[in-house]
Design goal:
This protein is an alpha+beta fold and about 150 residues long. The protein has a single domain (about 5-140), classed as Sufe protein. Chain: A (Alpha-Beta Complex). It is about 45% helix and about 20% strand. The chain has helices at about 5-20, 65-80, 85-95, 105-110, 125-140; strands spanning about 30-35, 40-50, 55-60, 145-150. It has a four-stranded mixed sheet with strand order 3-2-1-4, with helices on one face. Strand 1 and strand 2 (about 40-50) form a beta hairpin. The protein starts with a helix and ends with a strand.
Length: about 150
């Protein structure tokens, strides 16, 4: 990755941290809470599903720039997807941030989510980037226990 690309990625993360998209509660039956005890990140994910499609998704919470930006970008990426498409995207995102080979076609497929590619170089930050994603999956599974990164 070139320096200019890293700088662009950093700008996208900072923008989504300062102005998170879809940061509000939803009146819905799918909801889960997540917590990263190492750094204090907390997130609540709300999902509205209609006909096996994610009609709306939002979040509330507090966390570092990576955690907040990840939740914000996640809501944009998953809105409108089927449950199956969401599961696939969750797997691909997890593979990317944990250091799986980043083939150019995968990066293209992930769109703006590719800004988190460099997170794999910082193992402690992987938990920040994936907290919202784990919590989203728990909400869909209707899990009552809070999600934790530990």
């Amino acid at each position: 990755m070139t320096f200019d690309l890293r700088e662009l990625y950093q700008q996208v993360i900072l923008d989504h941290n300062k102005k998170p998209r879809n940061q509000h509660p939803l009146d819905t039956s799918f909801k889960a809470e997540g917590h990263n005890p190492l750094c204090g990140d907390r997130v609540t994910i709300y999902i509205h599903v209609e006909d096996d499609r994610i009609a709306d998704v939002s979040f509330e919470g507090e966390g570092c720039a990576i955690s907040t930006a990840s939740a914000s970008l996640m809501t944009q990426a998953l809105k409108g997807k089927t449950i199956e498409e969401a599961d696939k995207l969750i797997r691909e995102f997890q593979e990317m941030v944990t250091g799986a080979p980043d083939a150019p076609d995968r990066m293209e497929h992930l769109g703006k989510l590719a800004v988190f590619q460099g997170v794999c170089e910082f193992p402690m930050r992987v938990k920040c980037a994936t907290l919202a994603w784990h919590t989203f999956r728990a909400a869909l599974d209707d899990t009552e226990d809070a999600v934790t990164t530990e």
